[in-house]
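Researcher: Here's the sequence for the chain we discussed earlier.
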Amino acid sequence: MSIRAYARSWGVSHVAVLKAAKAGRIPLEPDGSIDPAKADAAWDRSTDPSKAKGTAKPAPKSTKPPPEAMKPVAEAAVGSVRETLKEQGLPASGSVTFVQARTAHEIAKAHLARLRLQRMKGELVDRSRAIATVFALARRERDGWVQWPARAAALIAAELHVDPHRCEQVLESHVRRHLEELSEIGVDLR
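Model: Thanks. This is the structure I predict for it:
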């Protein structure tokens, strides 16, 4: 069947059929003609139902496209759609339809828009920057404690009337032991 004849059968312009063929939405035969059975099935599979015109004829229910006409979809993409739908409490069993994929896409866009808005409002921070800041604060805190016995030992020794050097050694050993205990605390940075 010619491109123009096929376009008339669907009630669309021949330009729409050419665009669909160029985009890989419908297959062309080697001679440039169209096999209506293959093209009808491919057209239905790849057409967004929300943009379909009412004048288009429905594809026959009993014909199934040959396996070579179907493009395989990466399992990761199908899994991503299923996961997104399940997170929202929507059904995601069996084969994934165009409507389900479109729904998952819209959900993902909404999540992304919410994250951008939260970042603009200052409610969301960059993870790597936050980790670096916490690390720097912890290091400053640790360094302050390591230096504290040398500064405080003389004052404590004067109040207790003990040897300042021995007082510094005792304070330093207790501070280091305490810092070691603190370093064993596990932090989950997921």
